[in-house]
């Protein structure tokens, strides 16, 4: 399986997780009807709909492809602002940043809240940058986060996502170790839960996963550890309740890149008009991944 096909599968995996979780967003675990998951039942949005998780991921993927892997935060914000009006489920932190940028052209200057809006869109950086270049990967994460999220924990969560996503393409057995290593590199106490989740000692909150960045990433690591394949992981993610679409989307963007993952059983129900772009974007990100040279080798 080529890297381009793996990246294409990861793009679809993220969208599949997003769509599976959308009907149950904010629901506590007890209210997630596991017998109806694959129906993608309609709620406030039509059946099969994806949310801002998929939309923002696609903006990042396009921007990386269009700029040869050298994006700038203002350009990301221009593209986000152009689409935000039609974006389903956009978070309050991101919406405020878009409103400020639209009105003033400025990026946030205060740390703001440590929510998961940067983490949910950041997998394409991991798909594009190979494991051997963590310096470049982290720099791109900071640049593509700071338009909406400048809190160190929000940026750190996005960095952990990219570490897991890049290793999923190379060696799936390294995904959990990569998450722990990135958390240790960050050195933030909020990410102690990542180590616990990787070791199996983390307990999900009973009311569901909140939109805060640190518990979101702990939930993703927990799901990856306790699942055997993509579909099982996404079902597990939604079953945790709370921010179901984001946890499942991030998990899908990581595990979808593992070689030879079949499409989830509900894929035919997912409304994903961006499918026509997948091959082009995946091919371009794979090309850029192959061109990436670790700074230590320069």
Properties at a glance:
single chain, 298 residues, mainly alpha, ADP-ribosylglycohydrolase fold, disordered C terminus
Summarize the structure in words.
The protein is mainly alpha-helical and 298 residues long. The protein has a single domain (3-297), classed as ADP-ribosylglycohydrolase fold (Orthogonal Bundle). Helices cover 56% and strands 0% of the residues. The protein contains 13 helices and no strands. α1 (3-21) runs parallel beside α11 (230-239) and α1 (3-21) packs across α13. The model is unreliable at 294-298 (pLDDT under 50). Belongs to the ADP-ribosylglycohydrolase family. It comes from Acrocarpospora phusangensis.
How helix-rich are the residues, as a percent range?
Answer: 55-70%
Shape: globular
Please name the CATH topology: ADP-ribosylglycohydrolase fold
Number of continuous helical runs: 13
Q: Please indicate the percent range of residues in DSSP E strands (runs of 2 or more).
A: under 5%
Count of all domains = 1
CATH superfamily, please? ADP-ribosylation/Crystallin J1
Low-confidence stretches: 294-298
Assign the CATH architecture. Answer: Orthogonal Bundle
How many extended strands?
0
CATH class: Mainly Alpha
């Amino acid at each position: 399986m080529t890297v381009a096909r793996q990246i294409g599968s990861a793009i679809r995996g993220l969208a599949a997780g997003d769509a599976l979780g959308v009907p149950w967003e904010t629901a506590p675990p007890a209210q997630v009807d596991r017998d109806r998951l694959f129906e993608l039942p309609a709620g406030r949005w039509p059946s099969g709909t994806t949310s801002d998780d998929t939309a923002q991921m696609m903006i990042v993927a396009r921007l990386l492809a269009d700029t040869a892997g050298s994006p700038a935060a203002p350009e990301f914000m221009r593209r986000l602002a152009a689409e935000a009006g039609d974006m389903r489920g956009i978070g309050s932190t991101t919406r405020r940043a878009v409103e400020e940028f639209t009105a003033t052209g400025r990026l946030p200057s205060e740390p703001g809240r440590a929510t998961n809006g940067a983490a949910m869109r950041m997998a394409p950086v991991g798909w594009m940058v190979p494991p051997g270049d963590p310096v470049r990967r982290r720099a791109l994460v900071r640049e593509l986060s700071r338009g909406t999220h400048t809190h160190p924990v929000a940026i750190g969560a996005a960095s952990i996502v990219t570490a897991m996503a890049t290793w999923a393409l190379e060696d799936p057995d390294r995904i959990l170790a990569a998450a722990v290593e990135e958390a240790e590199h960050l050195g933030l106490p909020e990410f102690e839960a990542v180590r616990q989740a990787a070791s199996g000692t983390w307990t999900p909150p009973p009311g569901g996963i909140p939109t805060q960045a640190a518990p979101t990433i702990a939930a993703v690591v927990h799901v990856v550890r306790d699942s055997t394949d993509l579909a099982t992981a996404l079902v597990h993610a939604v079953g945790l309740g709370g921010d179901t679409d984001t946890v499942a989307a991030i998990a899908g963007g990581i595990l979808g890149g593992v070689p030879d993952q079949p499409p989830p059983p509900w894929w035919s129900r997912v409304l994903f008009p961006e499918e026509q772009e997948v091959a082009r974007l995946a091919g371009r990100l794979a090309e850029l991944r192959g061109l990436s040279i670790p700074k230590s080798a320069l």
